[in-house]
Request: fold
Amino acid sequence: MPARDALSDHLIPVQRLRPGDHAFVGYGDDEVRWETVTAFVRLGLARGEKVLVLPCPDVPEEEVLARIDFPSRSTVRARERGQLVVTSMRELIRPDVEFTAARQMGRLSLATDRATAEGYTGLRAFIDMGWVAALGAEVATVARRETGAGALFAGRPYTEVCAYDRRRFDRSMVIAMERAHPHAVLERLGSLRAVRTPDEVLCFVGEADGANRAAFVRSLEIALARTAATRRLTVDLTRLHFLSVGCAVGLLTLARGATGHDLVEVRCDRGQRQMLRRLGADAVPRLAPREAVGLC
Amino acid sequence: MLNPEPAGHDRAKAPAEESGRRLLQRRFTARLLPQLRLLVEECAAREGLNEPRRGEFVLAVDEIAGNAVEHAGGAGRLVLRRVGDELECRISDAGPGFSEAVIPELLPGLDGAPKGRGLWLARLVADRFAVAPGTGTEEAQGAVVTVAVRLR
Reply:
């Protein structure tokens, strides 16, 4: 069933993060937690960005590297040349010892400038918020930093993911922090979320792969039923990082059979539009793929 | 996150002849396809394959790997190489084997059986595409599908 809540409107897959993005991720599982950080780190390295990883202080650096470094020690060279750095909040704010938002943001801003001066395309940081307890920082201070960090990101080649362990933080705090971030990333690779906006747009977020085809089609069927009275449905694919042929064909087939509808509008990016056309979208009456920019 | 490739030998191996620089070698099952896409995307970005071709290449690889999972025993093996100015991916499986002839020449209609569209699109977006017999037994010969795109 499509979700409809205030927290769903800024969900994106981690692969879609771009310079200037500030994102939240929550986790509650010691295996799943590595999926987001691994994707974030490895895609950042591949895009020529410098990458900082500030893991939970409880996790040994050796485990962090072992988790990220697959297959075949493939990030060793990045670490040797300084493109990938595993560090800590304590190290970041050194020689100071007390956390302040201004101090931390100042260090990250300098690190961004340094990264670009070194020839990287930008800086990205994965920050596990386990440091809050380790440094004895006030949660309220951290919350103010999260909501007031705009200058660190606006027009700057800096990307940040803040990871909150739901077992360590109060539930209301985690929810507040998720709201405080412009984006929230999906916790798992290969996951798909269907989100219904207040104006009845069905947005898909994540990866519409073969494993998610049944859920993708089911969400479309429900959305078509919900919009039977208005005879118009809008489907937004722009927050998908991956659209499989099976899901794309599922969309085309349902649109073709939606004889009670006057219009099925599909908001998509250029690549998705090309794919739908290749699969026969032009022959589907009432289907209107439209290139869109931005989130629904 | 991903299990390392087992050291043991498997029937779904790549052909003996190899060329170019190996970027990635993974065994996969259905559960590992999201991670496989991530690794292929990462390698493609590192080798300079830009969007939208990078997305098309990842799609082609996923469709071929998904075909191996669905029709060839639930697993396969991927080898990604840089060969000259091409990014080449070979996906091998230990299934019954198939030939390129089973891929439809024209796009199947939406009212037809939903088979073959994934491989059809993979071939469409590729600069080079081939299906060859694997090296398995008579009953399970396997197949090796090669898909390549130009980087420049």
